[in-house]
Design a protein that fits this description.
The chain is α+β, with helices and mostly antiparallel strands and 319 residues long. It has 14 helices and eleven strands. Helix 11 crosses helix 13.
């Protein structure tokens, strides 16, 4: 476990400001209103990582969090928050929907839409943060699902999963397979949201299938043989059916695969722990078999050669 903040270590007259800053650091920029005088304000935040997903457990005195439209515009969130209330009743309003969140209740907080959450008196919650790019769902579907998750048959399964993941987080996050637990958690959240959307007809089977295909692609980006035939076979469909599903998406199947691979290489070239690997090794690691083709696509995407980008990105580290 990593305790990222404990107000007991802060002088009483400085706690309110420190807690407000810690709340925003653990989530996203918002207006933080704390209940009570400085000496009564308290908070503890614990964080565990499971690959690209993370659990944040928060225990605080009375609090109100208001995220405004301006904050959403200027500080978009890369994650979706799915929380289970552990102690104290919370009141949550988003998109015109108001809910009282009691201990044991799960709620989805769309961090890319304005909201108002408040709780009087001491309380606690545990929150699973999942990357939006891993979910692969449209923003409007997430917003619609957030208001309906309590009607999904997956609701209690996901709530129990988050509670159990938190209860065993020390051991699970330290295990070599921690990232797999994170992947499983992301898949559960995707299922919850798709199920909630499907109740009102806003998600059709092709959308669900597209989400599965995108998840398959993310899991297999490093496979140089990843392509239409392999993907279609894995999903028991023809290549023609696969392309038909992609016909109305923002980019083609091939473009999507190449873009994601380039993003992985782009990121790895900035990592000090990857300096011992050649650019060609990193490119091959993410499925690029032709060095010339890779170099052309990289420069077209980022305006620099891979070598120029790596030199620029690592210069401060090497100085």
């Amino acid at each position: 476990m990593t305790v990222v903040f404990n107000s007991d270590t802060i002088a009483p007259h400085e706690r309110a400001d420190a807690v407000a800053a810690a709340v925003q650091e653990a989530s996203v920029p918002s207006h933080v209103v704390l209940d009570g005088p400085d000496e009564r304000v308290h908070a503890t935040f614990d964080v565990w990582w499971f690959g690209e997903a993370r659990i944040v457990r928060a225990s605080t005195s009375g609090i109100q969090l208001i995220r405004t439209p301006k904050q959403v515009r200027t500080s978009p969130a890369p994650v979706l928050a799915v929380a289970v209330q552990q102690a104290g009743d919370g009141r949550y309003e988003q998109g015109g929907v108001r809910r009282v969140v009691r201990p044991g209740d799960l709620h989805v907080m769309d961090l890319n839409a304005p909201y108002d959450f408040s709780r009087r008196g001491d309380g606690a919650s545990t929150c699973l943060h999942v990357p939006l790019d891993q979910l692969g769902l449209p923003a409007d579907s997430i917003g619609q699902a957030a208001a309906r998750v309590q009607d999904s048959p997956h609701y209690r399964l996901v709530a129990n999963h988050i509670v159990q993941l938190t209860a065993d987080a020390d051991a699970l996050s330290a295990d070599p397979a921690a990232a797999l637990s994170g992947c499983a958690s992301i898949e559960l959240i995707r299922g919850l949201l798709l199920s909630a959307c499907a109740d009102d007809g806003s998600v059709v089977p092709s959308d669900i299938l597209l989400s599965r295909i995108r998840a398959y692609i993310r899991r297999n980006l490093a496979d140089p043989g990843l392509g239409a035939e392999q993907i279609a076979k894995a999903h028991n469909m023809s290549v023609r059916q696969l392309y038909k599903i992609y016909a109305n998406t923002e980019c083609s199947l091939e473009q999507g695969i190449i873009s994601q691979r380039l993003e992985r290489v782009h990121g790895d070239l900035t990592r000090p722990d990857q300096k011992h690997r050649t650019i060609a090794m990193i490119a091959r690691r993410w499925g690029f078999r032709d060095p010339s083709h890779f170099a052309r696509r990289f420069r077209a995407a980022y305006g620099l050669t891979p070598r120029e980008w790596r030199s620029t990105a690592l210069a401060p580290d090497e100085a």
